[in-house]
Amino acid sequence: MKKNLLILCLLVFCSLNFWGQTGTAPRVVHAPEQSAIHLPPQEAPAGLKIIYSNLGTASDLYTGNWLWRLSGPNNSLFPGFPQFVGMLFTPQSDAHVLEVRVAAQYFGTGANQVDLNLYSDAGGTPGTLLAGPVTVTNLPQGGTCCALAVADFSPVAVSAGIQYWVVADTPLSGTGSDLSGGWAFVAKIGATEWAQDIDNTGWFPAPSDGLPAGGVLGTIP
What we know:
By secondary structure, the chain is mostly beta strands. The protein is built from 2 helices and 15 strands. It has one domain (2-219). It is globular and about 45 Å long.
């Protein structure tokens, strides 16, 4: 699996015309590192506790140059190949979600924004929309670390031991639908994640060694 993932990532260096001719686009992308200096992430609001997080240390939260492709239906970087991304999480205790923090990045074309949402689980894929979309603008540049896309929500009740999803997507048309970006990995083995094409192919399983990096914060009674 790791070998196949690496091969897929390396193919990103081919021309955009290549993808148009083959009728495919990489689900995983590589963004050359833009800076060896890692900036600290935004501070979390006082009083919020971690409900879920797979993020690393403050200076090395995620692998900023390896990402799941995150692209709207009108993106120009991979035209005709939109893709949304979901991150699964399971609270260890009953809680209320107030903030979501993910490693979404911008590739320099289209609107610099993404919508973050909370979903219930439906048999291992995102189910019912619980909250959102919350539009986050001014995403960090692809290939950098360690700023995050931060979305604040009105309190959303979640239950211990129940699976939920954070989903990054775009509108199907209009402002934001032309995003070309990605959701950076964490180097961690874990449960299978899912990504979504919105060209009628639905959700598909993603390798477990390419977890979308992020965290969910809120209050825990």
